[in-house]
Amino acid sequence: MTQAERYERFKALHARPGAFIMPNAWDAMSAALLAREGFEAIGSTSIAIALGLGRHDGHHEVSRTEAIANAVLLGRASGLPINGDLEDGFGPDPEDCVATVEAAIAAGLAGLGIEDTTADPARPIHDFDEAVARVAAAAKAAKGRILLTARADNFIKGRPDLDDTVRRLTAFAEAGADVLYAPFLPTMDAIETVVKAVAPLPVNVVMGPLTGLVSLETLSAAGVKRVSLGGVLYVRALDGLVDAARALKHGDLPAAAPTLHVPDLIGLLPG
Prior knowledge:
This protein has one domain (3-231): TIM Barrel. The chain has eleven helices and eight strands. It has helices at 3-13, 28-36, 46-52, 64-78, 94-107, 128-142, 162-174, 188-198, 216-221, 232-249, 262-268, and strands at residues 20-22, 42-43, 82-85, 111-115, 147-151, 179-181, 203-206, 226-228. Strands 1-8-7-6-5-4-3-2 form an eight-stranded parallel beta sheet, with helices on both faces. Helix 5 (94-107) links the parallel strand 3 (82-85) and strand 4 (111-115). Helix 4 runs parallel beside helix 5 (94-107) and helix 5 (94-107) packs parallel to helix 6 (128-142). The protein is globular and about 60 Å long. The mean pLDDT is 97.
């Protein structure tokens, strides 16, 4: 597929009735396995990239070039449209966001996300006007070329202000974003509030309400369009590693035996 075809295919998923799951991969094999299991699009995940490299997420320790290269790898391995988790656009200014959009398009991505974070722990969230200007610039560059998700990170940065989150997402929608996203919303009521505020534009949630996960059917009934998983599958894979390691410490060698087979995995890779 060309980049334009990936974009159209990804955009069409958001126009279908009901919600869909967009799992997040971190390397070629995780992407290939998710494609084998029938998912129609994949997201990258900045936290998995950072942890895999021994770096901190959200502090520009992973570069734009590295993040986009990882997303390209996922697309090559899976053959699916890829939504790039591209953090804050890798810089404070609207021009940085534009550069990230252009680089994502040139790399063949179908979508990307831009956060309102600053990479500065002392001031983790951009002021409202700055945040809107950054999304507006990204949306202008993205329009009709790549699907732009605009993300308000109040809750993930310890600022549980639903009113300000809704204000930001509404402004991002008016500025031209295609999808709206606020990670770590606490309840279904909060999710429904966001969905209603930005309707008819699609809303992404990560997993579901923070106070208790619900079914995809419940999220779909609330008007959610896309469910991503962030770093959840990566951490779940690490859970398996820890379980096997603890068993091995007690001499239980069979506990480390996998159910997947290396020749089958190799067979999933593109020629």
